[in-house]
């Protein structure tokens, strides 16, 4: 059974990984393949070794992209992908399906697209409420036994679901949104992960760009950017949330780092078992994010940050009602 932390240490990976989704999915028009390949090549050259993709992203185009970029480098990286949520070409929309036969089929297709004979980490992307979690995890466990995946993970699940899943197989990692303005894992999931020695892989650790301090106007986003439909970025809520940034930006100036680096340093300070995977299309931002490894926050600064952007201060929910219906994670009341 692969320990995510041990694997990252084994390949001398930085403590920050790379989420590859927005090269192909959800944040406006995808990059052209040549441009995306240049970005991924630069990421590897500057030191990234943990690459995260999924069957869903770009209707599987992201996996093909990552597979091509990492060809010849496979043994030097931790490669993670996800199953159980995909774009159905017949329906032209996202479908969640956790049936064992679906997960096996998607895994085998992912291996082909990623040009590899195994995945280091393979997540169930969403809980299928029509399929007991034990059945889905059992199917992934059989893929571990066959050597097609080295370790299994879950994404956007509750502490209760994680504990049920563990009765069927060891869960190496849980992926969940976690940042200074999204503290949901602190309700129960982080404790459940630590009970089992499960890593928490934090996606959107920069709050979908909010914590970089660079997104002043939601209107500047492309029309098909996913953030346009998120309540926190609405015309009513976003100005209120921008006001929460003022104290945060002041701390970044005091610490002498960028706001993004401060956000990542805060998250890394939650424990070595919390692994941020920020995503970006910008080579400069990739380099900046890696620089967060050099930012060390003292206890007083960490406490100041903890008091900022608490759930009662943030305006708007994390997802729309339609998207939230697919999410199993705990919500603040």
TrEMBL record:
Keyword Magnesium in annotation: no
Keyword field contains Transmembrane helix: no
InterPro entries: AKR, Aldo-Keto_reductase, NAD(P)_OxRdtase_dom_sf, NADP_OxRdtase_dom
Domain NADP-dependent oxidoreductase: 16-307
Domain of life from the UniProt record: Bacteria
Keyword vocabulary terms for this entry: Oxidoreductase
The protein, known as: Aldo/keto reductase
Native organism taxonomy: Bacteria, Pseudomonadati, Pseudomonadota, Gammaproteobacteria, Oceanospirillales
